[in-house]
Fold this sequence. Notes:
Layout: H1 5-10, H2 19-24, H3 29-43, H4 48-55, H5 59-67
Helix pairs in contact: 3-4, 4-5
Amino acid sequence: MGGNAFHESNSRILPSIDIDARTRAGLSLDALEDLLLEASVARAEGNLAGAARLLGITRPQLSYRLKKKPGAESGDEPTRE
């Protein structure tokens, strides 16, 4: 059980990215969040509900996080549900 729950759930999203190496290299929390959001939406083929399930958050939470990204406009997010 323990502290590996985050890593285990997100290994489905980013199986080839060494998060420890990225954080040691100076990857900020915001950049890591962006990476997780983009990877989950891509893995779910644009389906925001599916991407949210991969991340363990609700679809409205995912939508909010996508909209708060720099350069995001209301029409930029994928439309598939």
